[in-house]
């Protein structure tokens, strides 16, 4: 009985080998060309490393950064400082400390140091920037790029100012650039398939849902930002040792647009996309530059010199991609996940079975400590009172039904309990500890799981990945997380569809997957926001059985918001009714249904008046 | 004292210019949720209208520039941005980056990559003395224009039906649509106004520098973006505040930075928003972005 995996071995191997082969072919073609062609191909490979660096952050986080070329600049200058022969260094960079001037390192050590410093810079810059929002990051990273450009361009005694540096040793060959590019692919895929990589991808798919399974968005983004900085630094360091010259504009706005185009055209979500995008756009770019320099096209149409033409071409390609093919050439898939390659390989992974699972339930005794208790919760949105002095208690292992007409404040209450909404007054306590104001991620780590009325799936992750990432959110390693996910999926009868992208499942399947995802964090309390909505009669019956099983096996308490009374009655011995932000009554389902106030709030007093009359 | 007064007026003038840029960007953002990178190219192309129509009387050339701003903005919306209206924030941002790259290089090919000088009326470059302070006329123009633009925009947004529709769309676009507001029209109007604002900025920049270059839109758009981030996304008032702060900071640093640090003014100016974001991750007025939506 071997452990279950996210993807079959052939698929993983293809995802790794196809980009490596593409790079090898590029390097081989380059190595057999004229010296100037060799230089061009070497620079393309350096560019490719930067694009892979961009993919690590942008592709996995879904957040665009326009500042990564700043790290390439940093890497390039550091590498140049470390390798400039002392005689040249004294002339060009008199402001550098002696030990750097005298360093004269080799290509490998200088590249490694450049990479380390770029990565460190990325962490320092990322610390404040990653705390800001998805839209503020592109802008503040661009501001960082300008800061780098400005500093490098004016720090004459160290960087040579705007005229830059010359006579840098040219030690990067096609072969070494190819090897580094291959290493970059391996590193990028290793990160993408690591627990940290999956957590970051979950934030890309849905930030709110990711936080609900304990993922700290800022932290995961920062890790990728740092790795991205390392790779961009390597690309910059290698490039400067190819061309031998460097100035502040080398990695500035133009290069930012070019590398971004490469990533987007290839398909940002996959490393494969980064590689084919970089190679394809580089070829188009070279062709356009040929035209730009006045070469004739197909021997017939002759165009005069027109600088800027290549950039227009790239801009048009980028625009067309965004409009017509937003997932890029690769469709955002790794090579091993491409449909035609799957058919070619025909060897698919063995179907998942329960035997691959580990027991996801918490050991007895560990599970139950104290109640989930809310006291005096009040909240108003711009003067409108949504919740007024609400008290609510879910005892360990208990199922409490929360019902009420639309707009009664049920979802708001769940948001307060799970940390997504700070109440104006009142406290939330777990095990007697005041947890009011705790972040959703911290509450998830403390055993609070939830689902969403709007489901919030991770559309581009498979069902198995969607659920396993829940366990990873708790800090569980990848192998163990897969086992937990298989167990949970098995309990919910979802194993058959587990290999499909979550976005392709029918609404009912996605809703169940949302429950499985919340269970994967092994919660002590599970808050379910209308789990039966959109399910058909049969599925609803099944859901009741599943939830009963969950309560028994996981020993977790459940707060169930549901309009379907049969599900509530079947599951919940105790029901709390909300209306207009206030608790109308608490009791057994039968008591609640017999309460005239409840009937009135659901059906309206005019209805009662009509019945009486 | 005199020097301080002079510097303060300079700071206010530059701040006004930045506020105009930030307003143009915010206006489009509120109705469409897109940070428009091509706004800088709207500025640049309007400025080139002054260069192309240099033979006309200056007032006529300015009118041509304003018209250019409107036409380019509407065209960009129709051809490029309408197709990505429902895409996510990042996709829209990258799309506008593509439009910016295209427009910038079209001008490079059509005119030249190098700067072209543009004649402006001599009276603009003269100064007027108020007491002991001598104020460049251009600063009066800038301040006056900003006041007029803010007044008109306020009137449009708060006193007309169109403005009501735009504010409703900014509040909740889908709901506004359901209530019968025509999305195409509201967005087109927002782009047209944003084009006018860009053109006004373009004209002011040309009056100050006396030249046009294909890359002249890059710095303004980044300044505008940063001002928007500082102010908090989607807040008109925040955009004005952000622009004023950034302009004032840049101007005052220019006046008071010691000689050794003077070349690094831009670096300091662009580090400033980061400092604000450390303490207020969602800007001074805290826009809606990043707030939990469940």
Give the assembly state of these chains: heterodimer
What would the average pLDDT of chain B be, to the nearest integer?
88
Summarize the biggest pleated sheet of chain B.
2 strands, antiparallel
Which range best describes the helical content of chain B: under 10%, 10-25%, 25-40%, 40-55%, 55-70% or over 70%? Answer: over 70%
Radius of gyration of chain A: 29 Å
The rounded distance between the terminal residues' Cα atoms of chain A is 71 Å
Which secondary-structure class do the elements of chain A indicate? alpha/beta
Number of strands of chain B: 4
Profile the largest sheet of chain A.
6 strands, mixed
SSE run of chain B: HHHHEHEEHHHHEHHH
In short:
The complex is a heterodimer of chains A (613) and B (294). Chain A has 613 residues and is of the alpha/beta class. Chain A contains 26 helices and 12 strands.
Q: Helices, strands, pairings?
A:
The complex is a heterodimer of chains A (613) and B (294).
Chain A: H1 9-31, H2 35-61, H3 68-83, H4 86-92, H5 98-101, H6 107-129, H7 136-154, H8 156-159, H9 174-192, H10 195-205, H11 207-212, H12 217-243, H13 253-266, H14 271-292, E1 296-297, E2 301-302, H15 309-324, H16 339-345, E3 372-381, E4 384-394, E5 399-403, H17 410-417, E6 425-430, E7 433-434, H18 440-445, E8 448-450, H19 463-473, H20 478-491, H21 507-519, E9 525-529, H22 537-554, E10 557-561, H23 565-571, E11 574-579, E12 582-587, H24 589-594, H25 596-603, H26 605-612
Parallel strand pairs in A: 5-10, 5-11, 8-9, 9-10
Antiparallel strand pairs in A: 1-2, 3-4, 3-6, 6-7, 11-12
Helix pairs in contact in A: 1-2, 1-9, 1-14, 2-9, 2-12, 2-13, 2-14, 3-6, 3-7, 3-12, 6-12, 9-12, 10-12, 10-19, 13-14, 13-15, 14-15, 19-20, 19-21, 25-26
Chain B: H1 2-32, H2 39-52, H3 58-79, H4 89-110, E1 116-117, H5 122-125, E2 127-130, E3 133-136, H6 137-159, H7 161-171, H8 173-178, H9 183-209, E4 211-212, H10 218-231, H11 236-256, H12 265-279
